[in-house]
Automatic annotation (TrEMBL):
<keyword id="KW-0863">Zinc-finger</keyword>
<keyword id="KW-0233">DNA recombination</keyword>
<dbReference type="InterPro" id="IPR015967">
    <property type="entry name" value="Rcmb_RecR_Znf"/>
</dbReference>
<comment type="function">
    <text>May play a role in DNA repair. It seems to be involved in an RecBC-independent recombinational process of DNA repair. It may act with RecF and RecO.</text>
</comment>
<keyword id="KW-0862">Zinc</keyword>
<keyword id="KW-0479">Metal-binding</keyword>
<comment type="similarity">
    <text>Belongs to the RecR family.</text>
</comment>
<dbReference type="Pfam" id="PF02132">
    <property type="entry name" value="RecR_ZnF"/>
</dbReference>
<keyword id="KW-0234">DNA repair</keyword>
<dbReference type="GO" id="GO:0008270">
    <property type="term" value="F:zinc ion binding"/>
</dbReference>
<keyword id="KW-0227">DNA damage</keyword>
<protein>
    <recommendedName>
        <fullName>Recombination protein RecR</fullName>
    </recommendedName>
</protein>
<dbReference type="GO" id="GO:0006281">
    <property type="term" value="P:DNA repair"/>
</dbReference>
<feature type="zinc finger region" description="C4-type">
    <location>
        <begin position="58"/>
        <end position="73"/>
    </location>
</feature>
<dbReference type="InterPro" id="IPR034137">
    <property type="entry name" value="TOPRIM_RecR"/>
</dbReference>
<dbReference type="GO" id="GO:0006310">
    <property type="term" value="P:DNA recombination"/>
</dbReference>
<dbReference type="Pfam" id="PF13662">
    <property type="entry name" value="Toprim_4"/>
</dbReference>
Amino acid sequence: MNFSSKLLEDAVHEFSKLPGVGQKTALRLVLHLLNKEQEEVMHFSNTLIKLKQQIKHCTVCNNISDHTICSICAAPKRDKELICVVEDTRDVMAIENTNQFFGVYHVLGGLISPMDGIGPSDLFIDGLVERAAKGSVKEIILALSATMEGDTTLFYLHKRLKDFQIPISTIARGIAFGGELEYADEVTLGRSIITRVPYENSILK
Ligand SMILES: [Zn+2]
């Protein structure tokens, strides 16, 4: 792409770094913003800066939050003895949308993926082990994507958690293999949490 302006080129370059945004789309977005009032563009960029500077991770569950304890962990009505382990905040949102789960979450911040150089120490796993060790957890539901990385992570988590004598279950794989949680429809995802199975029964022998 030949740009008539270096400023334009720089902006397009930044936008094209976003997932799913190619150069053409980036150019369209930048030109769109350029046509907006200065005040509106300032508000847009300030929102992003504020997000980056002020966002926190809940110190209990690691979910993205405005406060040190997220609204789910802080809610008195939620069952703190039932922990649902998920990959990231998108999965929390997907499960919340089902209205079928009333426990709390634990957000790993990714899945174990040796191919991408992501090991257990890159994830918020020690935090989960600490929560399990406190002794007041009655069940841990591992709600991870039905992918190779999801299965590797399930296997590792089970190994780390099994000595605590806490029932560990996995969501029923009505979700097709290769299926990512956030793409499952709400009914399927809601049902898969209700019909969850003990981890031991879920692995092919
Ligand atoms: Zn939390």
